[in-house]
């Protein structure tokens, strides 16, 4: 009998094809809507492997329920949606999808930074609302990006890829990370500084830090108060690293200039989100790694991790 794999979202059939001799797949047949909790529990009970997305909370209760589970393959680099400790205790392998999404996510980080600094969304809306009457010297004038200082919080693979892009814009690169990264300092010319110094000196503060107990709401009222009044805050990691009330207040009261957010403490947000009412905030629906090429690579890597775990050679990219 073939091992049974449940996939929590509809993914393209052609990506599964190479694996259908090996596995029986079942899949939640909806691309936009996440799987309901009762279906997820039912499916997990029967499954030897689970392929899941950041939208699924794989908590203790679900893991306990998945008595046959041997592998949980997240289609994401971050895995704060999974109780890894509980899985590990039960001998279940947890895998993520690093590397394949690094450059794509860095692209989006830079796109968000540029859109925010140069008020791209506001400018498009300006025309959509038919408000363009005349050219104006300061019409929709934003902030420069080139030759400014970028501060990267979390110097992992994605942080480095952002730093390389920043080099192309002749920016000065500061970074803060739990551990120093001498190779990155050397080949990118990034300067290691304390979190406080990074906040004080950066024109752009970019969060790429994984979510954990330690990073929980590290961008709080005090952090925003330390930033320049002209600072632009970009978050492409996880919403939980931000005290959102403090960020909202800082934007509303112009204590910082603007923010670009791809992630939120509680997703999805809607048009009623307070952030959506601010002109100086650009919001995106968690699309950091969302290029067709990269999403296909992430799904294939998750499948390879399942195959490696269940068919002997071991997973390619287990977490930790
Ligand atoms: C997406 O947020 C990821 O962690 O890959
Ligand atoms: C995050 O873990 C990264 O790859 O930067």
TrEMBL record:
Domain D-isomer specific 2-hydroxyacid dehydrogenase catalytic, residue spans: 6-319
Stored Pfam families: 2-Hacid_dh (PF00389), 2-Hacid_dh_C (PF02826)
Transmembrane segments: none
Domain of life: Bacteria
Keywords, alphabetical: Oxidoreductase
GO cellular component: cytosol
GO terms assigned for molecular function: glyoxylate reductase (NADPH) activity; hydroxypyruvate reductase [NAD(P)H] activity; NAD binding
Record domain D-isomer specific 2-hydroxyacid dehydrogenase NAD-binding: where: 110-288
SUPFAM superfamilies given in the database record: Formate/glycerate dehydrogenase catalytic domain-like, NAD(P)-binding Rossmann-fold domains
Name of this chain's protein: D-glycerate dehydrogenase
Protein family membership: Belongs to the D-isomer specific 2-hydroxyacid dehydrogenase family.
Gene source species: Compostibacillus humi
CDD domains in alphabetical order: GDH
InterPro entries with a match to the protein in the record: D-isomer_2-hydroxyacid_DH, D-isomer_2_OHA_DH_cat_dom, D-isomer_DH_CS, D-isomer_DH_CS1, D-isomer_DH_NAD-bd, NAD(P)-bd_dom_sf
């Amino acid at each position: 009998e073939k091992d049974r794999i449940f996939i929590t979202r509809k993914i393209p059939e052609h990506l599964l094809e190479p694996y259908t001799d090996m596995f029986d797949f079942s899949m939640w047949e909806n691309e936009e809507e996440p799987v309901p909790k009762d279906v997820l529990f039912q499916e997990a009970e029967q499954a030897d492997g689970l392929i899941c997305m950041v939208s699924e909370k794989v908590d203790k209760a679900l893991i306990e329920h998945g008595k046959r589970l041997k592998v949980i393959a997240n289609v994401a680099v971050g895995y704060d949606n999974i109780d890894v400790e509980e899985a590990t205790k039960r001998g279940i392998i947890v895998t993520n999808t690093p590397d394949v999404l690094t450059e794509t996510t860095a692209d989006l980080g830079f796109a968000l930074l540029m859109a925010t600094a140069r008020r791209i969304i506001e400018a498009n809306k300006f025309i959509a609302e038919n408000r363009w009457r005349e050219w104006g010297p300061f019409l929709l004038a934003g902030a420069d990006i080139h030759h400014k200082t970028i501060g990267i919080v979390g110097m992992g693979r994605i942080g480095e890829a952002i730093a390389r892009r920043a080099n192309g814009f002749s920016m000065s690169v500061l970074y803060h990370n739990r551990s120093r990264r001498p190779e990155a300092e050397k080949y990118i010319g990034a300067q290691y500084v304390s979190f406080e110094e990074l906040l004080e000196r950066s024109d752009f503060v970019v969060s790429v830090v994984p979510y954990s107990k330690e990073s929980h709401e590290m961008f709080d009222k005090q952090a925003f108060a330390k930033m320049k009044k002209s600072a632009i805050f970009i978050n492409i990691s996880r919403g939980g690293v931000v005290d959102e009330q403090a960020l909202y207040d800082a934007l509303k009261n112009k204590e910082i200039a603007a923010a670009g957010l791809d992630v939120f403490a509680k997703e999805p947000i809607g048009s009623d989100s307070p952030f959506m009412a601010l002109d100086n905030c650009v919001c995106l629906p968690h699309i950091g790694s969302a290029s067709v090429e990269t999403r296909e690579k992430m799904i294939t890597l998750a499948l390879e991790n399942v195959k490696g775990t269940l068919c002997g050679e071991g997973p390619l990219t287990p977490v930790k």
